[in-house]
Design goal:
alpha/beta; TIM Barrel; 44% helix; globular; binds NADP nicotinamide-adenine-dinucleotide phosphate
Length: 316
């Protein structure tokens, strides 16, 4: 066994200990997953490989030392387990500031791919001031991906992003949404600007973007981050409750999934247009589960249809 695999197995065990999770068969499965090859997909505009499972941080706007401590563990362990993408936004309360403080304290900035978004509403015409806030909050001199959030100020922000990219402050530029009533705006933005990334909602229970957006992104060579892979923070419990009393089908092992979360995530990232999913993750046990979905095999086209048929056959 290589040193790296041993380190990853240790990261699982220490993560489990930090989360107060006993060494159950579930943790043993997470350890086994740590031995499988990491799945990455190249960013079309650069060829840079990106691991397919990151974290979403719309619940990182925390205040107390106890809450900060668990998030610190999540951000410290994620790159040890193979993950890289951390998606945040100005609108997520203190999320950018919390990430900036914790990442500086951990000292693992260079192991992360930091993605953030400009304000979701309000005046953004002073673009330099808008961008400076995110750099200050995140305590970094380089933001990997800057996204226009829900198209607010698109036409002033994209040129500002391009200038910042030319100056080496931003590595990639993109646009993000999570509702299908903004898909026409997304298609117009793709048409108007040379974007590196888009971010869009996609899950087994919400496949509209696969019909309306993902084929265009793939055709144009635009990387895709997918948000709300469990249906969104408010709805995730209801997505999981639909399979709560069901054993994982035997076919899940054919693509190395050992939990329902891994089935949902592997379904999302096996879409050929998708580069990475950003499941909202504040708990260490969820990080361990989700990072395991970033390793091993992915469902092929036949298996993807099988997962869809299975999901569509469930009572809603
Ligand atoms: N317009 C936009 O650009 C936009 C809109 C919405 C969201 N987003 C981005 O997308 C990210 C994801 O969205 P989201 O967080 O709302 O929804 P989500 O990822 O669909 O669901 C998050 C919920 O699932 C739980 N969870 C995570 N891993 C799990 C596991 N393995 N098993 C069971 N439950 C698990 C989380 O719990 P814990 O937190 O307790 O771990 C949380 O309650 C956001 O954080 C944000 O970065 C972007």
């Amino acid at each position: 066994m290589s040193d790296r695999v041993i380190t990853r197995r240790r990261a699982v065990v220490s993560g489990a200990a930090a989360a107060g999770v006993a060494l159950t068969p579930w943790i043993a499965r997470a350890q086994q997953a740590a031995e499988l090859p990491l799945i990455t997909k190249p960013i079309p505009s650069s060829g840079e490989p990106l691991p397919v499972i990151g974290v979403g941080t719309n619940a990182y706007g925390v205040e107390t030392a106890e809450e900060m401590a668990e998030l610190r563990e999540v951000l410290a362990r994620m790159p040890e387990l193979g993950g890289k993408v951390v998606d945040t936004a100005r609108v997520y309360g203190r999320s950018e500031e919390v990430i900036g403080e914790l990442v500086e304290d951990i000292g693992n900035r260079d192991s992360l791919f930091l993605a953030t978004k400009t304000p979701i509403r309000g005046d953004v015409s002073d673009t330099a001031a808008v961008l400076d806030v995110s750099f200050r909050n995140l305590r970094t001199e380089r933001i990997d991906l800057m996204q226009v959030h829900n198209f607010n100020g698109l036409d002033v922000l994209i040129p500002a992003f391009e200038r910042a990219r030319d100056a080496g402050r931003i590595r990639y530029i993109g646009v993000s949404t999570s509702t299908d009533d903004q898909y026409d705006q997304m298609l117009a933005a793709i048409e108007r600007y040379p974007l590196d990334f888009i971010q869009v909602d996609y899950s087994i229970d919400n496949r509209t973007s696969a019909e309306r957006i993902l084929p265009t992104a793939q055709e144009r060579g635009i990387a895709v981050l997918t948000n709300v892979p469990f249906g969104g923070r408010r709805n995730a419990a209801s997505l999981f409750s639909r399979v709560a009393d069901r054993e994982l089908p035997d076919w899940a092992a054919e693509f190395d999934a050992s939990s329902w979360a891994q089935v949902f995530l592997k379904y999302v990232v096996s879409h050929p247009a998708v580069n990475a999913a950003i499941p909202g993750t504040t708990q260490m046990r969820h990080l361990l589960d989700n990072q395991a979905a970033g390793r091993g095999r992915l469902p092929d086209a036949d298996m993807r249809r099988r997962i869809e048929r299975f999901w569509d056959s469930l009572d809603s």
